[in-house]
Design goal:
141 residues, 3 helices
């Protein structure tokens, strides 16, 4: 019996806390109006969204575009400097090759003059009757 009494008490409490149907209809009417207003606002935003997104992207990426253009200019400047350095290095390389060719010519002409001088000395010694042994003959024999 006590359990039934408690259940009835809860039913009465729930019935007492029930809202008035007029208040419920009023709240439902306000909710419908708010949903309609939200739908209208959403439709306006959807219509303006591509333009707003483009404006936002322009505003957001304008500094990046400036930085990109600056980087492109600096890259072109670095490329020009590297090409100039490459040209200078090529010129230096050709100058070093020319210097090496001159050095080889000087050394070769110096040895030719030594060979000519030794040949004259050998000829002079042979005229006086001396026996001259050449290194080429000894190495071959």
């Amino acid at each position: 019996m006590e359990a039934i009494a408690r259940a009835q008490q809860r039913i009465e409490d729930a019935a007492a806390g029930r809202t008035d149907p007029a208040a419920f209809d009023s709240a439902l009417q306000r909710a419908r109006h708010a949903v309609e207003s939200l739908a209208a606002t959403t439709a306006r935003l959807e219509a303006d969204l591509p333009e707003a997104i483009q404006d936002g992207l322009r505003q957001h990426f304008r500094p990046s575009a400036r930085h990109l253009a600056e980087m492109r200019g600096l890259t072109n400047q670095v490329i020009r400097r590297l090409e100039r350095i490459e040209g200078d290095l090529l010129t230096e390389r050709h100058a070093r090759v020319d210097d090496l060719a001159l050095l080889v010519d000087l050394i070769a002409s110096g040895w030719r003059s030594v060979e000519n001088r030794l040949a004259r000395i050998e000829e002079g010694l042979k005229r006086e009757g001396a026996v001259v042994y050449s290194l080429e003959g000894r190495q071959a024999g």
